[in-house]
Amino acid sequence: MQTTIRSAVTFEGVGLHSGAPARMTIRPASAEHGIWFKRTDIRLGDAMIPARWNVVEVSPLCTQIVNRAGVAVSTIEHVMAALAGCGVHNALIEIDGPEVPILDGSAAPFVRAILSRGVRQLDAPVRAIEILAPVAIQTPKGWARLEPGQGLSMDFHISFSDAAIGEQNRRMNLANGAFVRELCDSRTFCRAADIEAMRAAGKARGGTYENAVVVEGDRILSPGGLRHADEAVRHKMLDALGDLALAGLPILGHYTGHKAGHAITNALLHELFAHPEAYRLVTCDAVQAARLPGVGVEVEAVPEVA
Q: Quick one: which residues bind Zn(2+) (predicted)?
């Protein structure tokens, strides 16, 4: 059945790129509502923004959604991954500014809070997007592909010149709470050499060594080091789950990303929905529903570091 969060939960922090303080509350919503953001600081005009692939404004460092009135919310990928990974299909997310708080740079604070509140079943069946035929996006920087699969699974490959990251590969089936146990605590990361350029471009103004993994050559500059030896590729998978959640329904298929980022994954969704023969909407039976991320997961599964 479709779900929502059992009771409201609030987060406070600063935006990773804007550096602006933000207060955000995830509230329960009814069946078929989906995930929507509401800018509570917008007093006149349309403050509602659907968390959907077709309102994404391309940004190289985060995912930003914008409604027809030009009202935007950015860096939504971690909270979207948390909702998808906890199996929450419907929620209203109220926020008093233009960017989701970054917290510790991972999805774990969102996951822990959602699971602590609990997930409530609603009186409507859950539907999913079943991939029937492969679709792909190829760019000079990287590529991504969706192809048929029984549940949602992922392959991801990254390559960085800094030895602290280097080449990393990971393959995962995201059923049975794997996102919560293995991905949700992996933090966003960057190269120390890129920080000055990002800030000159108006980005990373809220970034610190506490909310991002900063690497320089073979060194990890952030205190405490890595949470996982392959934390970087795990975070890329976390981002991909959040960006795929903008399809509006869970996906039954296999995603492969090779040096893929937010823009490539969003382009992949555009490619998917441009080819109706490549997918179908299904009402999940018990077997299909059991393969979705978040089914049966408990708050005790969240890594202790969060």
A: 78, 235, 239
Please say whether the beta carbons of 29 and 90 come within 8 A. Answer: yes
**CATH 3.30.110.170 for domain 127-301:** no
Q: Which helix (H) or strand (E) holds 263?
A: helix 262-273
230 is in an annotated binding site: no
pLDDT tens, residue by residue, 111-136: 999 999 999 999 999 999 999 999 99
CATH number of 3-121: 3.30.230.20
Local structure of residue 185 (DSSP, 8 states):
T
Q: Is 239 annotated as a binding residue?
A: yes
Which 3 state secondary structure label does DSSP give 215? strand
What is the value of pTM for the model shown? 0.95
Look up residue 99 and give its two tokens: 């960017």
Cβ-count burial of 101 within 10 angstroms (0-12 exposed, 13-18 middle, 19+ buried)?
buried
Nearest-angstrom CA–CA distance, 247 and 94? 20
Q: Is 78 annotated as a binding residue?
A: yes
